[in-house]
Every structure is written in structure tokens, then in C-alpha cells.
Write a structure and sequence with these properties.
GO terms for molecular function: 6-carboxytetrahydropterin synthase activity; metal ion binding. The chain is of the alpha+beta class. It is built from 2 helices and 4 strands, in the order ββααββ. It has a 4-stranded antiparallel beta sheet with strand order 1-2-3-4, covered by helices on one side.
Length: 126
């Protein structure tokens, strides 16, 4: 299985709801790192899993959408705790909808909240 991945950094804010998480219940910023990893059993005619330059454009556009925003205020988080688990699924649904899913077996989005903590969402296409 081949894999290719890219990542971007973004600073945005959130606050957690539905529980008592101390300072996490108040608006605060995170320096998130968002990774996108695509898997394929085959390479294309150019020897690629995917054109990394196209993936970079798509991820950068999405990161710009969230940059310096309060996640709680965005419609995609309406009624959801803006956890990194939910954030990874939301990003995946937006990024993967524009992919030619026949080319890939899986896609994964990993959102790092800091240098030690992350959550991911994986989707199987084939």
C-alpha cells in the first residue's frame, strides 16, 4: 500500500461544551496541525499516489476557511462539541468530497492539538 501525506498549520479558537473541562470550557486558541494522508494500492501513470501540488492547494484553501475563527460559531459545528475528533471528521468530509475516490483506498485526516495530542478520522473509499 502506498501513502502520501501533507500537512498545514492553523491557529483557531474553540471552547468545549457538555462537560466540566476547566479552562477548556472558555474560548482559547490552539496551534493545530492538520495532516491529510491518502492510501492507494496503485500508482498513477506518473508514479504518484496523488499530485501533491493539487492536494496542497485543496488543504490550504480549507485551512484558510478556519484560520483565526472560533469553531463554535461555524455552522458545521452547530450542536457539536468542537473537539479535535469532530474537527477531523468535518475536515475529512470537506476535503474528500472533491477527490476521485476510485483512485484511493483510504483517506485520513489527523488533527494535532499540540505536540503530543491528536485525533483522526479515516474513510475507506474502495
Amino acid at each position: 500500500m502506498y501513502e502520501v501525506g501533507i500537512k498545514r498549520e492553523v491557529i483557531c479558537q474553540h471552547y468545549l461544551i457538555g462537560g466540566d473541562w476547566g479552562h477548556e470550557n472558555c474560548p482559547h486558541s490552539h496551534h493545530f496541525v492538520i495532516e491529510m494522508i491518502l492510501s492507494s494500492p496503485n500508482l498513477d501513470d506518473h508514479g504518484y499516489v496523488a499530485d501533491i501540488s493539487k492536494l496542497n492547494v485543496a488543504l490550504e484553501r480549507l485551512v484558510d476557511k478556519y484560520r483565526d475563527r472560533l469553531l463554535n460559531d461555524l455552522p458545521e459545528f452547530d450542536g457539536l462539541n468542537p473537539s479535535i475528533e469532530n474537527f477531523s471528521r468535518i475536515i475529512a468530509s470537506e476535503l474528500f468530497e472533491d477527490l476521485d475516490r476510485r483512485r484511493f483506498s483510504q483517506g485520513m485526516i489527523k488533527v494535532w492539538e499540540d505536540g503530543q495530542s491528536w485525533a483522526s478520522y479515516r474513510e475507506t473509499f474502495i
